[in-house]
Design a protein that fits this description.
With about 500 residues, the protein is an alpha/beta fold. The chain has 18 helices and 22 strands. The protein binds adenosine-5'-triphosphate (ATP) and magnesium ion. Magnesium ion (MG) binds next to helix 1.
Length: about 500
């Protein structure tokens, strides 16, 4: 195997803070090389050096054995290096074929786009990925998983020889992950070198040939995955053995007063109607495929979306004029799954982000008491182990996982009685996950009612006192106690209603 792209003793600092030191990394054609490490370990920074977003301060980058100094991502792309970032770069208003060939349109000598040729090429690329998409479809209307595939097709159209995927499965689940993996394997067979970043270690074992571990900017090791097991890898990442990840569940489940109740909620774009009752002191898991309506249901409960039918009751009273603001005032909080779009203020400081919804607490006679605000921010940063060079820095400069911690810290500071969490540990490392689980359980033990949406089944199973499984906008079934098992959840998430009910009964031993 020939090495296509490498970092040699690469180092990088931001504002005098060193975030990568002496890192060696190689990816060969025909291999999947995973990069793992805790939040802030330097994974995204490493790929930004490899792909020309940043230049290394020390050491260097080699492309096909030759030292290079990328002046821009375009230059790296021209040499066959493509990155699929978590925030997609496709343009929603353009079609699939326009996106795939953006800037590299096949043209006539007069500079006119050869549309038939572009369509033919797009079809061939989609076929290579074994996906059934209309080249003329508008990208903004596609599912997240399909948009990811368009990104990959776009990379292939640029003759990518190295494909770098930064947490690609943070936004997809189940069948979509299986499809992505099929395509990764296909590209590997074609000789493409793949760099794969993920916090889901089971995926790393499934797909990667080698794995590189980074810790606090240092290169810990690079090993063949078949020489490793899960626990060894975790120990290399966190530098210690991890105790139990999930805290003990509620002693008495399902007996608290119902605080949030929804009946006959219709989720936009779905055929079904959903009912649910959320109780004090419990963690209620909401499972289901991406696209089954979980997030939309949470939006309706939070007042961020209206349902054409049904009612929502909070503490027994029907909600009049629901809105996010009135929900927050009533002690109902929602943690968004999309921290980029409607969670954080990227250009504002960490302190400002932490206190936006609890500002009045730090205000006296209309004046902001910055001392109080700073003290609160300092304790939140310590409690959640948020890594940053100083509280004045912009949230955009934090690593993905640390942004998620800011969002959660801000929400819990409001001490809500009802909490809706949408993918609370997305992009968060394993140590911080354990910490978040502990906090969520403490919240429930303190009497709050918690609804937790998650696409990670082990998280649903490890955390929930009860589980609702959603499919096509309705609740396909409920599981409790020992019947909360992977097969049962998957069955409910994918089967026909009648069959699913029979399945749930069998699972519950009825
Ligand atoms: N543009 C920047 N300015 C200042 N600091 C930065 C910048 N980009 C990254 N950092 C810092 O560099 C460190 C490494 O960040 P990086 O994004 O590489 O981590 P990561 O391993 O990808 O983490 P995660 O798993 O949370 O995505 C972090 O402490 C981060 O705050
Ligand atoms: Mg990252």
């Amino acid at each position: 195997m020939t090495t296509l792209l490498a970092a040699r003793r690469a180092g990088k600092s931001f504002d005098g803070v060193s975030v990568l030191r002496d890192v060696d990394f190689e990816v060969a054609g025909g291999e999947v090389h995973a990069v793992v490490g805790e939040n802030g370990a330097g994974k995204s920074t490493l790929i930004k050096l490899l792909s020309g977003v940043h230049a290394p301060d020390s050491g260097g980058i080699e492309c096909e054995g030759e030292p290079v100094r990328w002046q821009s991502p375009h230059e790296a792309q021209a040499r066959g290096i493509s990155v699929i970032h978590q925030e997609f770069s496709t343009l929603p208003d353009l079609s699939v074929e326009e996106n795939v060939h953006l800037g590299i349109e096949p043209c006539t000598r007069l500079g006119l786009i050869r549309r038939a040729e572009r369509r033919r090429r797009t079809r061939a690329l989609l076929q290579r990925l074994a996906i059934d998409l209309d080249p003329a479809a508008e990208v903004g209307r596609l599912s997240v998983a399909d948009r990811q595939m368009v990104e990959i097709a776009k990379a292939l159209a640029r003759r990518a020889r190295v494909l770098i995927l930064d947490e690609p499965t943070a936004v997809i689940s189940g069948r979509e992950v299986a499809l992505l993996f099929e395509n990764v394997r296909r590209l590997r067979t074609d000789g493409v070198g793949i760099v794969y970043i993920s916090h889901r270690l089971d995926e790393v074992f499934e797909i990667a040939d080698r794995v590189t571990v980074l810790k606090d900017g240092d290169h810990v090791a690079t090993r063949a995955t078949r020489q490793l097991d899960h626990d060894t890898l975790v120990k290399m990442m966190v530098g210690r053995e991890l105790a139990a990840i999930f805290p003990p569940k509620a002693a008495v489940g399902g007996e608290g007063t119902v605080v949030l109740e929804a009946a006959d909620i219709a989720v936009p774009g779905q055929s079904g109607h959903a009912d649910l009752a959320l109780r004090r002191g419990e963690v209620l898991g909401l499972a289901g495929m991406v696209g089954s309506g979980r997030t939309e249901l949470a939006h309706v409960l939070f007042g961020a979306m209206t349902s054409p039918a049904g009612t929502v009751r909070l503490h027994g009273r029907p909600r009049e004029d629901p809105s996010p603001a009135s929900s927050l005032r009533a002690g109902l909080a929602y943690l968004t799954e999309d921290r980029k779009r409607d969670g954080l203020f990227a250009r504002k400081s960490v302190v400002e982000n932490l206190t936006t919804i609890t500002l009045e607490r730090h205000t006296a006679r209309g004046l902001l008491r910055t001392g109080s605000e700073d003290a609160f921010a300092r304790s939140a940063i310590a409690d959640f182990a948020i890594q940053l060079s100083g509280p004045g820095i912009a949230v955009a400069a934090l690593s993905g996982g640390n942004q998620q911690k800011v969002l959660l810290a801000r929400l819990l500071a409001a001490e809500p009685a009802v909490v809706l969490l949408d993918e609370p540990t997305r992009g968060v490392d394993i140590g911080a996950k354990a910490e978040i689980y502990r906090m969520v359980r403490a919240l429930a033990d303190g009497g709050a009612a918690v609804l937790m949406i998650s696409s990670e089944l082990n998280e649903i199973i490890g955390m929930s006192d009860r589980v609702l499984v959603m499919r096509d906008g309705s609740i396909a079934g409920e599981l409790e106690g020992a019947s909360i098992r992977e097969e049962a959840i998957m069955r409910l998430a994918t089967l026909h209603p009648v069959m699913a009910e029979a399945g749930a009964e069998a699972e519950a031993g009825v």
